[in-house]
Amino acid sequence: MGKTIIEKILTSHSGQECQANDIVVATVDFVMGQDGTSPLAIRAYENMEGQELFNPDKVALVIDHSSPSPLEGVSALHTIMRNFAKQKGCRIYDIGEGVCHQLIPESGQVGPGSLVIGADSHTCTYGALNAFSTGVGSTDLAGGLVSGKMWFKVPETIKFVCNGVLPAGVYAKDLILYLMGQVTADGCTYMAAEYTGEAIQALSMEGRFTVANMAIEMGAKAGLMEADEKTFSWLRQFTEQEFTAVSADPDAQYHKVLTFDVSELEPQVAKPHRVDNVSPLSEVAGTPIQQAFIGTCTNGRLEDLRIAAAILAGKKVHPDVRLIVAPASRKVYLDAMNEGIIQRLVEAGAAVVTPGCGPCVGTHNGVPSDGETVISTANRNFKGRMGNSNAEIYLASPASVAASALTGVITDPRQFMK
Amino acid sequence: MKFQGKCHKFGNDVNTDYIISGKYKFKTLDMNELAKHVMEDLDPDFYSKVTAGDFIVAGNNFGCGSSREQAPLAIKHANIGAVLAKSFARIFYRNAINTGLPVLECDTDLIDAGDVLDIDLSQGVIINRTKDMKIAVKPLPQVMIKILHDGGLAPHFRKHGGFNFD
Ligand code: SF4
After folding, report:
1. C-alpha–C-alpha distance, residues A218 and A187, integer Å
2. Across the strands, what pairs with A157?
3. Among A40, A156, A250, B146, which residue has the fewest nearby CB atoms (within 10 Å)?
4. Measured between CA atoms, how close is B80 to chain A, in angstroms?
5. Which CATH number does B2-160 carry?
């Protein structure tokens, strides 16, 4: 019987011919933790009486969620991570380097066919590289650090076939928001998503990361894509390591195959307080906003900043709006500087903060006030997500966020693109 | 393991930000401190309403969102005996088993807020005392039973030196 991408990766990493619903113990190629999860993982590691890491070269800790530290308590947790990394000889990415889900792909250590676990739910992002990568908790992470292994139930797969060509002004973010709205927040629970079709093939790698990133918002264990020439040339910037593409067999068994045509898609938003509370942006156009945020592991990449800067160039952010920009990594930041993107954003009135998660998770860098409305390029708009449960968060593409920052109300970016 | 307690009811898609907000979880590893803020954004007085051994009862997709293990740990430290839901998000489910918080998948429409339940974990039985009815529980996969039996993943590793499901 044919296999899906995830069945193939789990077969090659467990040494056991497996298919959906089997339970396997598989070897992992890379293990990652961030500052919200690593301190607990280190505690669990000690609790397991772990001595050495299974392989320090395949482990990285990232200080990105609360970075630089805004508080004494956070500083203490960061110290635990730095000491552990020093002692065990693994890589630590410290403040200013960026968001884990940008840094790990940029490290060149993950590619087609890899199996990655990360103690962060958006680890599913690397599915854009044709890897099976998934989020785990701290104790599972500790198990991975000690043994280089993890147990998995092989998930069933839902295939999303996206046909057609995205219209101008409509982006990967609009596409994934639309899919979210269609399948809902638990539409893929306990399952993997495979994204395919000409609309996915046409996306840049950056756009593909955006789509894979939000697989977890549907409850999926992974959001996988096929590897093509774009995947390999993107990887060649970062590594000489050879990877082999993993594709699904033509007779692979899917839980469901969903087919969409994106040719008529409009810009989308997710409305408060649910990621699957999605509608065309036009439905909420005109809603006043006080804060706009461009960044995160969903949309803090070079292409995202470029699109935003093109809309903001030579104009000024609305006086009632604060625009915050967090480049996803130091590389993104530097590349954006070299292209003059940062100059254009700052001239327009943006506050550019340290590469990292920025205000995404409400620890610092832009907590909204009571009754305020934020439009953000992030992946979650839960109540309280940005640190205040009396604020409302809309999710949208970088273009929509930039356009809204200019007008002070939720705005269709296409009106700035004529 | 047997529990008796009363139920606190929540809806669908209770995410880990609601269980324990990101603004707290980064500050400390002191779970007793985090426990005070459990469910705060959904019910500001939740922590003070709980009597030790009470149950959280919810709809679909409980624990969706982030991978934070602080979520099951804070629930446990708020003295909740078990979480019952129609379905769980997978990372939360694994984290709960790994850290020894009992989680049961069952038809929670048969339970109302304030109902008193008897739960026998080893038998996988829930009795709703208030409504005088038995509620079927979806059994855990064998691997998870093994991990729970060992007291969580860390004790499992101490005992076996790694994964051992034979
Ligand atoms: S940017 Fe936001 S969603 Fe992404 S890893 Fe950081 S906190 Fe999580």
Report:
1. 6
2. A192
3. A250
4. 20
5. 3.20.19.10
State which ligand 1 atom lies nearest to the alpha carbon of A361. 7
Which residues line the pocket of ligand 1, CB cutoff 6 A? A 65, 99-101, 120, 122, 296-297, 357, 360-361, 378-379
Q: Are A290 and A373 in contact (CB under 8 A)?
A: yes
Distances (CA, A) of A290 to A142, A404, B141: 41, 10, 48
User: A92, A71 in Cβ contact below 8 A?
Assistant: no
- The verdict on A165 touching B (C-beta cutoff 8 Å) is no
Per the CB < 8 A criterion, the answer to whether A180 and A172 are in contact is no
Tell me which chain B residues have a C-beta less than 8 angstroms from the C-beta of A65.
22, 26
Q: Where are the alpha helices (DSSP H) in A267-365?
A: 296-299, 302-312, 330-338, 341-348
Distance CA A242, CA A214 (A): 27
Report CB contact under 8 Å: A137, B67. yes
pLDDT (tens digit, 0 to 9) for every residue of chain B, 166 residues total?
A: 788 999 999 999 999 999 998 888 778 889 999 999 999 999 999 999 999 999 999 999 999 989 999 999 999 999 999 999 999 999 999 999 999 899 999 999 999 999 999 998 878 889 999 999 999 999 888 898 899 889 899 999 999 999 998 8
Secondary-structure breakdown of chain A: helix, strand, coil percentages, each rounded to the nearest 5 = 40, 20, 40
| Domain map (residue ranges) of chain B | 2-160
**What's the pTM value of the predicted model, to 2 decimals?**
0.95
3-class secondary structure, A364: coil
Of ligand 1's atoms, which has the minimum distance to the CA of residue A295? Answer: 1
Distance CA B33, CA A85 (A): 27
Domains assigned to chain A: 5-260 (3.30.499.10), 280-416 (3.30.499.10)
pLDDT in tens, A229-245: 999 999 999 999 999 99
